[in-house]
Amino acid sequence: MVVAAVLLLLLGLLWVFQRRLIYLPDTAPVPPAATVIPGARDITLTTRDGLKLTAWYVPAAPPGDLPNETSGDRAVTVLVTGGNAGNRLHRAPLARALAARGLPVLLMDYRGYGGNPGTPTEDGLFLDALAARDAIHTPKVIYFGESLGAAVATRLALERPPDGLVLRSPFTDLAAAGQVNYPFLPVRALLRDRFPVADAIAAVRAPVVVVYGTGDTTVPPDLSRTVAKAAGATAVEVPGAGHNDLTLLTGPELVGAVAELADRVRGRASTE
Prior knowledge:
hydrolase activity; hydrolase; Alpha/beta hydrolase; 42% helix; two-stranded parallel sheet; 8-stranded mixed beta sheet; alpha/beta; globular; Rossmann fold
């Protein structure tokens, strides 16, 4: 009887505090964009529920102004929706690498991340990504979703279809990834935030690329392969790469996959 009561208490605590295990933001304010990436600038996003969120706009090399880069029918901006940890400062190397390939980047932070107000939830992160999408005015946009951000990008793609979608280390849904990391818990029964990807991805009407590492123990590669199959996506496998390895942030396979998709998008634009 006592054991059962203790178990119920623990499950109750997990139900109440589970989001502290899901979302691991670096809440510290980030420095001004230009001090981290020359030519980058700070922007403010306004969500539908009234939050003011800070983000970085990183122009393509050579640096230019946003209004100039919205002209022309071949401009492609990459919107990055990050994973569950850190903040945009940790993803600055990705933005630099993409900008060096001629791609402007909007590097956003969710509510509760990087000094932003609010508390992260599944619906909240979607509203944050939607506000970021509304701030982009180039003719063509690619969404880049990292891990949990892949689920955010997929949901955004259903609401605001992109011209291309890159999912880095996506899971089929949050419960599947959670069960891997907490095998002793009834994760699927406890979860409040679901983040489905595999069940939703087939409805996305854009070319999809899935990039994953074969050494990933946080989101096992089989989960990413399932997403790629459901999407009919191009799959880019990075041998031996773990979930947080640098090669899945700035490696040639990853950056090349985004750049190649952008070339496809530009090619489609020139024939439309």
